[in-house]
Amino acid sequence: MANEGSFAAALARSNEIRADFDVNPGKYTMLTGDRPTGRLHIGHYFGTLKGRVELQNRGIKTNIVIADYQVITDRDTTANIQDNVYNIVIDYMAAGIDPEKTMIFTHSQVPALNQLMLPFLSLISEAELERNPTVKAEQEASGHQLTGLLLTYPVHQACDILFCKGNVVPVGKDQLPHIEATRLLARRFNERYAPVFPLPDAVLSDAIEVPGLDGRKMSKSYGNGISLSMTAEETAKLIKKSPTDSDRNITYAPDNRPGVSALLTTASLATGRSQEEIAAEIGMGGGGALKAYVTESINGYLAPLRERRQELLADMDYVKDVLHEGNAKANAVACETLEQVREAMGMVY
Ligand code: TRP
Fold first, then answer.
1. Which atom of ligand 1 lies nearest, measured to the CA of 156?
2. How far is the CA of 66 from the centre of ligand 1 (A)?
3. Which of 181, 183, 249, 300 sits 20 to 30 Å CA-CA off 237?
4. Minimal CA–CA distance to 102: which of 156, 66, 155?
5. Region label for 59, one of left (φ > 0), alpha (ψ between -120 and 50) or beta (otherwise)
6. What spacing in Å lies between the alpha carbon of 38 and ligand 1's midpoint?
């Protein structure tokens, strides 16, 4: 599990792999994903989407699952799921994901991926499932009862990674226990039956975590994140009502001035300038001048992405085609892997 020792080891391994991406891009198959519970925001963009586009463009095989079955791990409804899924496909493409290079698919349309869950569940004990700290934390945060699907979703996530023989998984620190679980399942399967699966490694993001506009964690439920799909006007409004403080002198101090500092970080990501440099420039201009600067810089940065979003929204047939083709490709890959699994297990009739 993710104690500090294993975190250090995971980080060292992650750095080694990053260094090797340019040397041996062909060695790597990346799989990562998102839960379609709402719109993607700039936290997703700067935290992972940008990095995925870079990997894709370096020639690494890239795969993205829109994890629709994960939506019902801790909620009782699939309301808006179709709209959320299509909008995520649009966000991906607007951000630079190229469906010619990256396979985009949903769990629910790839039966053979889901079928891997049965042999994998037999390889892990109830105690091991219950020990996963991330599952516990997510259950508490959701306030929902611990469903069987939430308890076992790390195993399902292993199916996501292993059906396409993914060997690198870009994730945040909180997902490390799931990569550990995936390695455990792959190792146990290979030892018990036959060597079918790679043992994947986490690639830890070196991007900073983007705070919400109020300095808290960016989250849909706090309404403190700038979505990629917002208009420039909606973005301006959200920034306008974000909390600052009474000190007119703008300084970067994340612990003491969370609101002001989150605004500075947002502008820093959009401009490539440091928070301190922006703060010094605004100086005694106060919250108003800071907000004007943040609004202009983030709206400017997102303008081309939002323009592509609009073009894609106007061509929903194309968006649907991209997903259908991604699903078809994923099905072919999943059927091949499932066939290898059946053979390894002697289930050949
Ligand atoms: N659980 C991840 C999240 O909430 C999304 C996800 C689904 C994922 N399947 C995955 C991430 C496989 C990495 C690998 O963000």
1. 9
2. 8
3. 249
4. 66
5. left
6. 15
Work out which ligand 1 atom sits closest to the CA atom of 166. 14
**Structure confidence by residue, pLDDT tens digits, 131-177:** 999 999 999 999 999 999 999 999 999 999 999 999 999 988 889 99
H or E stretch including 202?
A: strand 201-204
Q: Which of 131, 161, 134 is nearest to 30 (CA)?
A: 161
Residue 93 in contact with residue 56, Cβ under 8 Å? no
Centre a 10 Å sphere on the Cβ of residue 83 and count the other Cβ atoms it contains.
Answer: 12
pLDDT in tens, 274-321: 999 999 999 999 999 999 999 999 999 999 999 999 999 999 999 999
Amino acid making up residue 314: A
pLDDT tens sequence across 11-69: 999 999 999 999 999 999 999 999 999 999 999 999 999 999 999 999 999 999 999 99
Q: Is 148 helix (H, G, I), strand (E, B) or coil?
A: helix
For 110, the 3-state DSSP assignment is coil
